[in-house]
TrEMBL record:
InterPro entries: Acyl-CoA_DH_CS, Acyl-CoA_Oxase/DH_mid-dom, Acyl-CoA_Oxase/DH_mid-dom_sf, AcylCo_DH-like_C, AcylCo_DH/oxidase_C, AcylCoA_DH/ox_N, AcylCoA_DH/ox_N_sf, AcylCoA_DH/oxidase_NM_dom_sf. This is Acyl-CoA dehydrogenase. It comes from Solihabitans fulvus. Residues 233-381 form the Acyl-CoA dehydrogenase/oxidase C-terminal domain. Residues 123-221 form the Acyl-CoA oxidase/dehydrogenase middle domain. GO terms for molecular function: acyl-CoA dehydrogenase activity; flavin adenine dinucleotide binding. PANTHER family: ACYL-COA DEHYDROGENASE, ISOVALERYL-COA DEHYDROGENASE, MITOCHONDRIAL-RELATED. Residues 8-119 form the Acyl-CoA dehydrogenase/oxidase N-terminal domain. Its cofactor is FAD. Keywords: FAD, Flavoprotein, Oxidoreductase.
């Protein structure tokens, strides 16, 4: 029989992160959010807990866990705050995982210990001002000049790319032309501080205000030829694999936000009175929260299945797209309903549900829009091109 209960090790991790989120993150994160300030001390504590090293082997400074362990941590963090959760998600699944999956042994031994410890953050440079999921629109180039790559171009909306502890960005760049006429795309590791690599000011964002998001530019930026990550010409395929895995992690984050909305509403409806009764006694409110619970439960099962297939080495592209789609929509729907339940207080940033509402929308856009997820699901069913 199927059993969706967590084993003792997973449950212990979940409770540990839940306690950390409630005791260390929840009391202070609202102030960071309002100041648009990156929470360095919280991130440092997460590093000391080993959260950034969860899915990596001990030989590279990791905790020897797996990707599902990372997802559980993301869910518990996002129940309290998505800025902290996305910092962990991007630092691991987008910053460190490409190096672990595709990097040379030298690259892994140089970078992974610091990334696993949370002493440095990695970033993932795919999106550009004029292109996201469409590889044909990629404009950043890297040409080989002797024993160096010369990188030119611009990247947009890159998480973790401009903090004081950002160590590297793995950049998708056009490195030539394939025999079929399409662009040859490769992945190039660019360390922070490399001449010609410029980090813009932080974006003014609707949500995720305590996380770091920047535009990056590269002007004759030179890095050693050995900074090629994986095989030349395989960069886009590598990024697609990274995105499939990342969608499972984003799904976990979305489930956490959706659950956080339920948590806050259950507390509030037991305290708030209207017309002589606690508002939780009214069926209209009960039905809203019941629907929120249904959405969250189903989304959690979806990401559990996708993660399970991934860990077993089975195809999981469709399941990852399903999990990402349903969890992001559950987060958005729950945030909207939670704000409605809180009424005027839900429109105030001092209440977590106001923050949740602002944070939820990006989940339907980042790491593949909801439209892209539907396209992927349809293709996996044999429809379309």
């Amino acid at each position: 029989m199927l059993d969706f209960r967590l084993d003792e090790e997973y449950e212990s991790l979940r409770k540990t992160v839940q306690e950390f989120a409630q005791e260390e993150v929840a009391p202070v994160i609202g102030d960071f959010y309002e100041r648009n300030e990156f929470p360095y001390e919280i991130v440092a504590k997460m590093g000391r807990m080993g959260l950034f090293g969860l899915p990596f082997p001990e030989e590279y400074g990791g905790m020897g866990g797996d990707y599902f362990a990372l997802c559980l941590a993301l869910e518990e963090l996002a129940r309290v705050d998505s800025s902290v959760a996305i910092t962990l998600e991007a630092g691991v699944s987008l910053g460190a995982v490409p190096l672990f999956r595709f990097g040379s042994e030298e690259q892994k031994r140089e970078w992974l210990p610091r990334l696993c410890a949370g002493e440095q953050l990695g970033a993932f440079g795919l999106t550009e001002p004029g292109s996201g999921s469409d590889a044909s629109g990629l404009r950043t180039t890297a040409r080989l000049d002797g024993d160096e790559w010369v990188v030119n171009g611009t990247k947009a909306f890159i998480t973790n790319s401009g903090t004081d502890i950002t160590g590297l960005v793995t950049v998708a760049a056009v490195t030539g032309q394939r025999e079929d006429g399409r662009k040859e795309i490769s992945a190039i590791l660019v360390p922070s501080g490399t001449p010609g690599f410029t980090v813009s000011k932080k974006y003014s964002k609707v949500g995720w205000n305590a996380s770091d998001t920047r535009e990056l530019s590269f002007e004759d930026c030179r890095v050693p030829a050995a900074n090629l990550v994986g095989q030349r010409g395989r960069g886009y395929a590598q990024f697609l694999q990274t995105l499939d895995e990342g969608r499972v992690a984003i799904a976990a984050l979305g489930v956490g936000l959706a659950q956080g909305c339920i948590d806050e509403c259950l507390r509030y409806v037991g305290e708030r009175e209207a017309f002589g009764h606690k508002i939780g006694e009214y069926q209209a409110i009960q039905f809203k929260i019941a629907d929120m619970e249904v959405r969250t439960h189903l989304a959690r099962l979806a990401y559990y299945e996708a993660a399970g297939r991934m860990l077993r080495g089975e195809p999981f592209k469709r399941e990852a797209a399903i999990a990402k789609l349903v969890s992001s929509e559950a987060a958005m729907d729950n945030a909207r309903e939670a704000t409605q339940i809180f009424g005027g207080y839900g429109f105030m940033n001092e209440y977590p549900v106001g923050r949740f509402y602002r944070d939820a929308k990006i989940l339907e856009i980042g790491e593949g829009t909801s439209e892209v997820q539907r396209m992927l699901i349809a293709r996996e069913l044999g429809l379309g091109r």
